[in-house]
TrEMBL record:
InterPro entries: Methyltransf_12, SAM-dependent_MTases_sf
Lineage: Eukaryota, Metazoa, Ecdysozoa, Arthropoda, Hexapoda
Gene3D superfamilies named among the record's database cross-references: Vaccinia Virus protein VP39
Record-given protein name: Methyltransferase type 12 domain-containing protein
The organism of origin for this protein: Stomoxys calcitrans (Stable fly)
Span of domain Methyltransferase type: 40-138
Name of the gene encoding the protein in the UniProt record: 106081652
Amino acid sequence: MNNPELYISANDVQRHDADVVVKKFSSKMQWHPKGEDTLIDLGSGSGDVLMDIVYPRIPKNFQRIVCTDVNPTMISYARQKFGHVKGVEFETLDMATDTLPEQLKGQFDHVTSFYALMYARTQRQAIKNIWELLRPTGGDCLFITLCTHPIFHAYKVLSKMEKWAQYAIDVDSFIPPQQNCQEPRKQFMEFLTDAGFTDFSVELQHKTYDYRSVEVFKTNMMAVNPFVERMPATLRSEYMDEALVEAFKYMGNKIDPKDYCGVLQIPYTLLVVYSRK
């Protein structure tokens, strides 16, 4: 996912879910009465969710906002687009790193993350890092992570096919562990407890999103697909067509995607987590 503009063109679901969650929890977050809050966002990608949805709800006299992502291309794009905003910084950061930079430890009142934790190399370590990023005196975090989605099933199935296996040898790195977890909520509660959190809410939400057509869904899924960039351009559409077939099977839809007409409803599940230190 090295094309920020393509990603932005296809992140309607992420923006919608982030907007709903931030609206719900912004009044519960522990904003300082006198302002001067510090906030770090993990897995910011192109930065548009942070700046368009979170930033407007932060007290105007905030002290510092740090936009981070593991992908330098995304951070470079975010810096170019939002670098003019006073008080906002941009850093390349792996949220699941074993060696969190010392200059970031204990520096933040708030940690946010939207649609990024599912790609963390180790979610348990990522949540430990969130604890470390918050000030010793306390703070809170709000994040959304995707648990299950038909496209993840398709990733796995295609990775076992001889034609596509060479492009997806690291497929498990791009499938949330919750895709096949029987109790994802319980698992995340254990992660939070192990990190040191005791005051938290974890909601498992079953959702659907309506795409105008199969073609729109295909285009959006291609924009966030981590494997298509590795294959010749001549194979990408064919790969996505086969991915759609497997996604339809996962949903129990017996119609060939090429023959499907009208709005396509895609089911998925999210974990919405709010926690205080």
